[in-house]
TrEMBL record:
<comment type="similarity">
    <text>Belongs to the aspartate/glutamate racemases family.</text>
</comment>
<dbReference type="GO" id="GO:0009252">
    <property type="term" value="P:peptidoglycan biosynthetic process"/>
</dbReference>
<dbReference type="GO" id="GO:0008360">
    <property type="term" value="P:regulation of cell shape"/>
</dbReference>
<dbReference type="Pfam" id="PF01177">
    <property type="entry name" value="Asp_Glu_race"/>
</dbReference>
<dbReference type="InterPro" id="IPR004391">
    <property type="entry name" value="Glu_race"/>
</dbReference>
<dbReference type="InterPro" id="IPR033134">
    <property type="entry name" value="Asp/Glu_racemase_AS_2"/>
</dbReference>
<protein>
    <recommendedName>
        <fullName>Glutamate racemase</fullName>
        <ecNumber>5.1.1.3</ecNumber>
    </recommendedName>
</protein>
<feature type="binding site">
    <location>
        <begin position="78"/>
        <end position="79"/>
    </location>
    <ligand>
        <name>substrate</name>
    </ligand>
</feature>
<dbReference type="InterPro" id="IPR015942">
    <property type="entry name" value="Asp/Glu/hydantoin_racemase"/>
</dbReference>
<dbReference type="GO" id="GO:0071555">
    <property type="term" value="P:cell wall organization"/>
</dbReference>
<dbReference type="GO" id="GO:0008881">
    <property type="term" value="F:glutamate racemase activity"/>
</dbReference>
<comment type="function">
    <text>Provides the (R)-glutamate required for cell wall biosynthesis.</text>
</comment>
<feature type="binding site">
    <location>
        <begin position="189"/>
        <end position="190"/>
    </location>
    <ligand>
        <name>substrate</name>
    </ligand>
</feature>
<feature type="binding site">
    <location>
        <begin position="14"/>
        <end position="15"/>
    </location>
    <ligand>
        <name>substrate</name>
    </ligand>
</feature>
<keyword id="KW-0961">Cell wall biogenesis/degradation</keyword>
<dbReference type="InterPro" id="IPR018187">
    <property type="entry name" value="Asp/Glu_racemase_AS_1"/>
</dbReference>
<keyword id="KW-0133">Cell shape</keyword>
Length: 272
């Protein structure tokens, strides 16, 4: 469906604050686009939930975003992209894109050894979605996946710069560090908030891929290709909604985003 109103917002959603790393990149690369962001802070993390629940949560969020008349939706969550994207694309009249294909494409472009590491939630790694997408693009690629379930709570609870995070990185990634990968995908939108610590741990020989930039570029191509990009010249508007802990989310948003967030609205997502 071609959306008639080019000034309509783009919907972006995640299980919590991680998707703000994608929203931040959309703000940078598509500065004219209005954004409605939803963080499912009442039900974070998604990585330990079943596929059926992830699909149910995602359907509720899409229904909420549709009430905001969004023209496209970005699933800024690797777990929901891995487990729900195909279903949501079939069911929705609005274009829906995820973060996995853009991240996989960037890694395939970057790797020289064709050995790629992926870190993500338990659900994302268990789905093997990254492996499937990468090997479709580069059949000779070898993919090592590692679930890092504590990374999301470390970010959500504000421990990204705490020394305990370095210990958890070592605990999860020591085997990958001693493998022969030359590229690693941060396969959860929370993980870029640990990027500098992870880069420090791996050193300069491993290229770290943050799918947020590639996702923003995919969104741009989609909007321009369907004549849906906002060319009004008006200042972009951003709205933020959460299912719980609005004040905590606001504090995080202001530490991540390039402008000051003044209002976060809390909604009951179970009503959708």
């Amino acid at each position: 469906m071609i959306h008639k109103d080019r000034t309509a917002p783009v919907g972006v959603f995640d299980s919590g604050v991680g998707g703000l790393t994608v929203a931040r990149e959309i703000m940078r690369q598509l500065p004219d686009e209005n954004i409605v962001y939803f963080g499912d802070t009442a039900r974070v993390p998604y990585g330990s939930k079943s596929k059926n629940n992830i699909i149910r949560f995602s359907r509720q969020i899409i229904r909420f975003l549709e009430t905001k008349s969004v023209k496209a939706i970005v699933i800024a969550c690797n777990t929901a992209s891995a487990l729900a994207l195909d279903v949501l694309k079939e069911e929705s009249d609005i274009p829906v894109i995820g973060v996995i294909t853009p991240g996989a494409r960037a890694a395939v472009k970057e790797t020289r050894s064709k050995k790629i590491g992926v870190v993500g939630t338990e659900a994302t790694i268990r789905s093997h979605t990254y492996s499937k997408v990468i090997t479709e693009m580069e059949p000779e690629a070898s993919v090592i996946g590692k679930p890092c379930p504590l990374f999301v709570p470390l970010v959500e609870e504000g421990f990204a710069k705490h020394h305990v995070t370095d210990e958890i990185i070592e605990y999860y990634l020591k085997e990958m560090k001693h493998s022969d990968i030359d590229t690693m995908i941060l396969g959860c939108t929370h993980y870029p908030l640990l990027r500098s610590r992870i880069m420090e741990y791996f050193g300069k020989d491993v290229h770290i891929v943050n799918p947020a930039y590639e996702t923003a570029m995919d969104l741009k191509a989609l909007l321009v290709g369907q004549d849906m990009d906002n060319d009004s010249g008006n200042l972009a508007r951003y709205e933020f909604y959460v299912s719980d802990t609005a004040e905590k989310f606001k504090h995080f948003a202001n530490s991540i985003l390039p402008y000051n967030v003044e209002t976060i609205q809390q909604i009951n997502i179970e009503e959708y």
